[in-house]
Design a protein that fits this description.
By secondary structure, this protein is an alpha+beta fold. Helix content is about 25%, strand content about 40%. The longest helix is centred in the C-terminal third of the chain and has 32 residues. Keywords: Signal.
């Protein structure tokens, strides 16, 4: 099993601007790996105001060709399920995602939190943690786990850059240094 985590601060002018950008993040021409994202469920808890959303993302298979010689890895795309809980009153959102492809061989879970910074309300804190565990591929298990965790960590960092660009385009927010 391989673990990873990413943390960042992003500029925020208005919480609603941040949320709008968050839902424009994918698919996006700045990341060709995400083919499509579809909302499959959305509901609001009337007592708490929390908005629950479930999305399915279709992503390109980015596993290197040399590893795709293993027959189960020869798929054109990978499906991910993402669930999010948005609390507009407390200005935070929790997300959880996992892989729907290869469930019999791999367990991948990511948990992310977006919240207003406690030190500066003009910034949003982003924290992501994940783990991946692969079985059934023999000596390739560790290689695949390492590749996947590196790719997912880099993907989170790319997502941060995309969010910053969208915030800058939408509302002139400064880019984080």
């Amino acid at each position: 099993m391989v673990l990873w985590s990413v943390a960042a601060l992003m500029p925020l002018l208005l919480w609603k601007d941040f949320l709008e950008c968050l839902h424009k993040e994918y698919p996006n021409p700045m990341d060709k790996n995400v083919i499509s994202v579809k909302i499959v469920e959305e509901k609001r808890d009337v007592s708490t105001g929390i908005i629950y959303r479930k999305r399915i993302a279709i992503c390109q298979n980015v596993i290197p060709e040399m590893l795709r010689k293993v027959s189960i890895l020869k798929v054109p795309s990978i499906q991910l399920e993402e669930e999010s809980w948005l609390n507009p009153q407390e200005r935070n959102m929790a997300m959880r995602s996992h892989c729907l492809t290869w469930t019999q061989y791999a367990s991948m879970k990511e948990e992310s939190v977006f919240r207003e910074s406690t030190e500066n309300p003009n910034w949003t804190e982003f924290i992501q943690r994940g783990r991946i565990s692969i079985t059934g591929a023999g000596f390739l298990n560790y290689i695949l786990e390492t590749f996947a965790s590196t790719f997912l960590r880099q993907g989170a960092q790319k997502g941060i850059r995309i969010m910053e660009m969208l915030l800058k385009e939408q509302c002139g927010a400064p880019l984080a240094e």
